[in-house]
Amino acid sequence: MVFNTEKSNLKISLSAEGAIKDWVKFYKLEDAKNAVSEVEIKASSNLKVNAIIQVSSSVPNGEYKGLISATSKPNTTASTTDSQVFLSQKIDRPVAITVSDNQILKFDVSVIPKDYDLAKDEPLSIRIIYDNQGNIDISPQMQMKIKKDDQTISNVIYPYPENTDPVKPNQRYEINPIILQTAGYAPGQYTAEFNFLINNESKLAKKFSFSSGIYDNIKVLGIFKSFNMANLFSFPALTGLTIIIGIMAVISTIKYLKLKASQK
């Protein structure tokens, strides 16, 4: 209930602050459908206003605090020597809401590298797509370890992006790609291990393998990567058994060069 002790009509602005600011809507008693942010109260009277607090089902369990405020702008002014100052009054009421419900924390993550075979010093670009399969909002942290022969080369924790809304239930969301700089990496095979955390607790693990610098200065690699069966058949001499032998020779050469590179 809001009171007006003035001798003239008074406009009151209604608002909420803190953790509850987006949960509160105000309604006149005679109109429960249309929310209001301002009401007018007649002189020396009062007005009842309902403050309806609606908490999203995806909000995690916990205590949430805020204020419900009523701010007046009276028609009277206080005079000074050179100017007039409008007086206003703000009344705050603290509100605390405890959320307790059966929560389902379940999500999956797609970890998709742009390429598994990198040239020397070529950055590794990785797409991260979150799939929230539970009933609460999530903002996972991501830990990424790069290993070579069981030795950790890099260990970085990426917080959930700032100024980004959490992933809502039943929503898929892709963050900006993670770019790993591989300058200085020795040629060879590597493993990227991912650990996804909620409130600093590990909830999901992913990994994949990639190579860096193995194919450098190997011209046959370019031939192999751009190998096209249609082009192969355009050579009359390469038919039948000759084609099969040619393909096997290329594959054997690649395997041999990979082995030699990994032994460096």
Description of the molecule:
With 264 residues, the chain is mainly beta. It folds into three domains: 2-99, Immunoglobulin-like (Sandwich); 107-212, Immunoglobulin-like; 219-262, no CATH class. Helix content is 12%, strand content 48%. The protein is built from three helices and 20 strands. It has helices spanning 219-225, 229-232, 241-262; strands at 2-4, 10-18, 24-28, 31-36, 38-41, 45-47, 49-53, 62-73, 77-79, 84-86, 89-99, 107-113, 117-118, 124-132, 141-148, 151-158, 172-174, 178-180, 188-198, 201-212. The chain has a five-stranded mixed β-sheet, with no helix packed on it. It has a four-stranded antiparallel β-sheet with strand order 5-2-8-11, with no helix packed on it. β9 and β10 form a beta hairpin. The longest helix is centred in the C-terminal third of the chain and has 22 residues, at 241-262. The radius of gyration is 33 Å and the shape is elongated. The chain crosses the membrane at residues 233-257. Keywords: Membrane, Transmembrane, Transmembrane helix.
Q: What is the share of helical residues?
A: 10-25%
**What general form does the structure show?**
elongated
Instruction: Name the poorly predicted regions.
Output: none
The CATH C-level class name of the largest domain = Mainly Beta
How many DSSP helices?
A: 3
The chain-level structural class is mainly beta
Q: What is the CATH topology classification name of the largest domain?
A: Immunoglobulin-like
Strand order of the largest sheet: 13-20-19-15-16
CATH architecture of the largest domain: Sandwich
How many runs of DSSP E, i.e. beta strands?
20
Transmembrane segments: 233-257
Keywords: Membrane, Transmembrane, Transmembrane helix
